[in-house]
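Predict structure. Chain length: 247.
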Amino acid sequence: MAADAPTILATSMGFNRARDPWRPGPVFSYAFDLAGGPPRPRLRFVSTGTGDRQASIDAFYAAFAGTEVRTSHLALFEQPNVPDVAAHLHEQDVIWVDRGSVVNLLAVWHAHDLPAILADCWQAGVVLAGESAGSLCWHRCTVTDSYGGVRGTGEGLGLLPYANAVHYGEGGRRAAFHHLLAADDAAGGLVGYATDTGAGLHYEHDRLVAAIADRPNAGVYRVTRFSNGEVREEPLDALRLKRDKGA
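Prediction complete.
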């Protein structure tokens, strides 16, 4: 089964990591529905941004243990853990990219030709999704703390022609995002989308079709740079996802 259109979920949400084992948030059910609602969805976890930290991989498997979700992971350190990366990714319903350093993630992906593979998966109906670095990576430009302090960067796969910020109200990201858009030298205006912790963005093709949230007061924002350099921020209405009991 496949999504009806090329689909990306770019979020500041995912697992409840305060629980042991981790609890999957409702964004996963939302993603599986977008993938056509398979009874046993195939979910691949990509944790390149943390250097394929084993503890995160183990926690991912534990989070879905005993469910109908067919889990697997892609590791690229020290070498790929599957013989044909493209084939394995194309077999998935949802590819979930974990948090971590988006700058390091992109460098490793480029070395392994992941950008072209992921773009092909996206066009074929595999839902691309993720949290934090797993949100930033799909966009044209971002703000990130991958260099040690929050700053803007042009790094991104560019599947989505927007700027992106995650965990928007934390660590000076709002001010850095406004500065990034104001300094952009693109002709005309530039649009960015930002999410507070607990919120996300649902895109079809390169168009935002829904803002989502898994908790109260988690905001989603459209931030626009106009041709005169002015930057304006607009809060968007978010669809509240229902949490499963015990999550």
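Summary: The two ends are 27 Å apart (CA to CA).
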